[in-house]
Design brief:
Blueprint lengths: L1 H6 L3 H10 L4 H30 L2 H41 L5 H32 L1 H31 L3 H43 L7
Helix pairs in contact: 2-6, 3-4, 3-5, 4-5, 4-7, 5-6, 6-7
């Protein structure tokens, strides 16, 4: 599994994996969990080392615990959102571009290269985190540069997956990537809006409850 994650970081090997790997959603979920867990371990290591180097070990332990809790809380939502994005994108690609590919295989390959990117991000984050602990200014610049490069490279790997799975020519693969990006944006935007509305409703409810209980003065 780890070897597949690493191979998925190289376009030529990723294209080969798209042709030879078999599996479905269940296998893809395993890769999402495994890649996320490895990235979590690397993140914890980064936090603890940065704490030692900066002399804030107590705070770093608390931050590491928070990172574990955050990962556990976000694991299932991440899987669900990934499923939705790939599922909707696959339907639209089929309808708009005539692409014929099995959704489970597409989900699996997105999960495999996504897990590879998670591990790569964890390794680079560890390196940048140590540098940031020694020099905050240089670390911040490196973090921005690394984030941009990894983001762009992730898009290229997504392009490779779509081109290989669907057997598209370059232009069609680019259009398929655009469809995937639009779907990703819309899904995350809707989720953000729903969360914002829920938080506002909770806030209003708490305010009204406090007012009814006399905790807030009436004017």
């Amino acid at each position: 599994m780890i070897q597949n994650m690493l191979d998925a970081l190289f376009p030529a090997k990723l294209a080969e994996l798209c042709k030879k790997m078999k599996g479905g959603v269940g296998e893809g979920v395993k890769y999402i969990v495994a890649g996320g867990f490895i990235a979590l371990v690397l993140s914890i290591l980064k936090i603890l080392l940065a704490g030692v180097l900066s002399g804030t070990s107590g705070l770093s332990v608390a931050a590491a615990i928070a990172a574990v809790i955050g990962w556990l809380v976000m694991l299932i939502p991440t899987i669900i959102v990934t499923y939705l994005i790939v599922w909707i994108a696959s339907m639209l690609i089929g309808a708009l571009l005539g692409g014929k590919a099995a959704f489970p295989q597409l989900f699996l390959m997105f999960a495999v290269f996504g897990a590879g990117i998670a591990v790569l991000t964890g390794v680079l984050g560890l390196i940048v985190g140590i540098i940031a602990a020694l020099s905050a200014g240089i670390g911040a610049l490196l973090l921005m540069a690394v984030s941009l490069l990894v983001g762009l490279y992730s898009l290229y790997l997504a392009f490779v997956v779509l081109k290989s799975i669907y057997g598209f020519e370059t232009m069609k693969a680019v259009l398929a990537l655009i469809v995937y990006l639009v779907v990703s944006f819309v899904v995350w935007f809707v989720i953000a809006m729903v969360l914002a509305i829920v938080l506002v409703m909770i806030g209003l409810g708490a305010y009204m409850t406090a007012g009814a209980a006399g905790a807030i003065p009436a004017y």
